[in-house]
Design a protein that fits this description.
It is built from 3 helices and no strands. The protein is mainly α. The longest helix is centred in the middle third of the chain and has 14 residues. 0% of the residues are buried.
Length: 92
């Protein structure tokens, strides 16, 4: 039996109430999407503020997308990723 909470997937849990509240606060009218909106620009600015001006940030939908992009950026096709057997990305 799987534990009630695990690191299996970020899609296994609901959204924190403060996140829902923040989304609701900006869910008014229409805005240009795909990174050209004020909310994305503000988020990217905060990443640069914390991690440096040369920081590149890629917004993704979930942890799986983040894993795939990270592995693709850091490895070549002949590389391997070593992780614990309990890791979300483990393939036996």
């Amino acid at each position: 039996m799987k534990p009630i909470r695990s690191f299996a997937s970020d899609n296994n849990a609901g959204i924190h109430p403060k996140i829902i509240q923040a989304i609701s606060a900006v869910n008014l009218g229409h805005t240009v999407g795909y990174g050209d909106d004020p909310y994305t620009k503000s988020a990217l600015s905060k990443f640069r503020e914390h991690f440096g001006r040369g920081t590149e940030t890629f917004m993704v939908f979930n942890g799986t997308a983040a894993n795939v992009l990270s592995f693709a950026a850091l490895t070549n096709s002949y590389h391997a990723v070593i992780c614990a057997e309990a890791a979300h990305v483990y393939v036996g």
